[in-house]
């Protein structure tokens, strides 16, 4: 896409200090980008919760402010005469081009307007282009960098199509150009190459991806000779940014409230057993349960799975039969395949259902208990849950390490994990674990003393590097 530096790239040891400086400050700017984006999105969430009208007004307000910046800021830049050795028309005609006339006379161009009034792809290509060290004034690059940095933050999260990747590449290209103009005299590198490295630095500082970003940058520029410099910039910028906050995608997952589980167990989890995080009253169903009780529990809770326990006369002692899903219970209530007594039915109720009845619905098409209408007579009837129960759910003993349970839960991809008692004198099931029960916020909320434990300090304590800054 940006095949602009495919020529031979030559760099020496003397070029490393400017490149390292660019990477360090790129990591700082990337972490600040994430910090500001988190604060702005929290504000947007408060506004968006007020309704669709507020969402549209917010998008319109930011759009108007963006347009005012794009049309107003180029007036601050002075006109520059067209370069005599230009390989394209000056001033440019049409949407693309590196020389926008704006308010300038003939044979002159406005360098800041050339950056603002192009598409993102053309602007990035212009900034990446080699042999253009004198086409942009340092003040114009500084204004464009500040504007794109903050406009990218305020544009994300609105009710309009916007992203993070290309705006960060664009902002990073302006940042690299700016660094090249400030300290490029100490290096033999072209300003266009500084722009490419600036994009890599800001991507590494914001998104913390190394290998994938390295491949993307090399594919965009079609130059394998830049691999060592891009690798160095990405490693340094990511390391610096990691000392301040998490990557932008982790912040977004946390902001949306998604219970994302890390691939490893936190050290303090080795001190706990699964029984230490089981909370709340456990809701269970009998093998043959009254319809009214099922409806009451479904309305009172938002759980998606319920243990099914057989009691006498179906078993000698209370026995865990399996796990039934909320979606399956709703299908049973909607189909109204009930029985009149609490004794086992001679016929198999599952024959009245097809596999499509229990198929997973698409997004936004789930059944709701409030949409199912039942008469008073139907609420007094019973439903046999045995044919619709998963009789082999994953279970753990209550004394099992929480760290081991987390690895099992995540590696197998479970949604529910039943906790069984250590002795047979208690209820057949003592709890059920879901993804939320493994979240650090939940565990540390139940056991706040772990904040002060030495294991907690090893994992979550501030590093000397972050304290230094």
From TrEMBL:
Lineage of the species this protein comes from: Eukaryota, Viridiplantae, Streptophyta, Embryophyta, Tracheophyta
Family matches, as SUPFAM superfamilies: CBS-domain pair, Clc chloride channel
Family affiliation: Belongs to the chloride channel (TC 2.A.49) family.
Gene Ontology cellular component terms for the protein in this record: plant-type vacuole membrane
Segments forming a coiled coil: none
Subcellular location: Membrane
Molecular-function GO terms, alphabetical: chloride channel activity
Stated name of the protein: Chloride channel protein
Gene3D superfamilies: CBS-domain, Clc chloride channel
The entry's keywords: CBS domain, Chloride, Ion transport, Membrane, Repeat, Transmembrane, Transmembrane helix, Transport
UniProt organism field: Aegilops tauschii subsp. strangulata (Goatgrass)
Membrane topology according to the record: Multi-pass membrane protein
Residue stretches spanning the membrane: 16-36, 56-77, 136-157, 164-183, 195-218, 225-244
Domain CBS: 389-449
Domain of life: Eukaryota
Matching InterPro entries: CBS_dom, CBS_dom_sf, Cl-channel/antiporter, Cl-channel_core, ClC
Coarse class of the protein's main subcellular location: membrane
Entry keyword annotation includes Translocase: no
Cross-referenced Pfam families: CBS (PF00571), Voltage_CLC (PF00654)
């Amino acid at each position: 896409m940006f095949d602009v530096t495919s020529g031979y790239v030559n760099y020496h040891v003397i070029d490393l200090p400017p490149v390292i400086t660019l990477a360090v400050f790129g990591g700082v700017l990337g972490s600040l980008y994430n910090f500001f984006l988190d604060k702005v999105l929290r504000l947007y969430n408060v506004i968006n919760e007020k309704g669709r009208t507020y969402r549209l007004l917010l998008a319109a307000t930011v759009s108007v402010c963006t347009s005012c910046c794009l049309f107003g800021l180029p007036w601050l830049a002075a006109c520059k005469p067209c370069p005599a050795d230009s390989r394209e028309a000056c001033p440019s005609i049409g949407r693309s081009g590196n020389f926008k006339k704006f308010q300038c006379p003939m044979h002159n161009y406005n360098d800041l307007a050339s950056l603002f009034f192009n598409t993102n792809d053309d602007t990035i290509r212009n900034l990446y282009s080699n042999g253009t060290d004198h086409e942009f004034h340092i003040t114009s690059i500084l204004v464009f960098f500040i504007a794109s940095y903050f406009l990218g933050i305020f544009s994300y999260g609105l009710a309009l199509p916007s992203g993070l990747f290309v705006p960060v590449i664009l902002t990073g290209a302006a940042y690299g150009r700016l660094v090249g103009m400030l300290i490029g005299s100490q290096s033999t590198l072209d300003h266009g190459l500084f722009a490419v490295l600036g994009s890599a630095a800001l991507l590494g500082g914001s998104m913390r991806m190394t290998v994938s970003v390295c491949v993307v940058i090399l594919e965009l520029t079609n130059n394998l000779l830049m691999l060592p410099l891009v690798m160095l910039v990405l490693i340094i910028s990511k390391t610096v940014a990691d000392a301040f906050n998490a990557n932008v995608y982790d912040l977004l997952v946390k902001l949306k409230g998604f219970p994302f589980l890390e691939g490893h167990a936190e050290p303090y989890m080795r001190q706990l057993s699964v029984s230490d995080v089981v909370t709340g009253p456990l809701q269970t169903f009998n093998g043959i349960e009254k319809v009214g009780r099922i409806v009451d529990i479904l309305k009172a809770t938002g759980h998606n799975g319920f243990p099914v326990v057989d009691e006498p006369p179906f078993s000698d002692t209370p026995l865990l039969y399996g796990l039934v899903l909320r979606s399956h219970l709703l299908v049973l209530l909607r189909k109204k395949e009930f029985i009149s007594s609490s004794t086992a039915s001679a016929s198999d109720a599952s024959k009245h259902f097809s596999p499509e009845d229990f198929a997973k619905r698409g997004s936004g098409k789930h059944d709701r208990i409030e949409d199912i209408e039942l008469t008073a007579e139907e609420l007094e009837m019973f439903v046999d849950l045995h044919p619709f129960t998963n009789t082999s759910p994953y279970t753990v003993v209550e004394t099992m390490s929480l760290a081991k349970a987390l690895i099992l839960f995540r590696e197998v991809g479970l949604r529910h994990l039943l906790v069984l008692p250590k002795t047979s004198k208690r209820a057949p099931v003592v709890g059920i674990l879901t993804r939320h029960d493994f979240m650090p916020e939940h565990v540390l909320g139940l056991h706040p003393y772990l904040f002060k434990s030495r294991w907690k300090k090893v994992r979550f304590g501030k590093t000397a590097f972050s304290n230094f800054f």
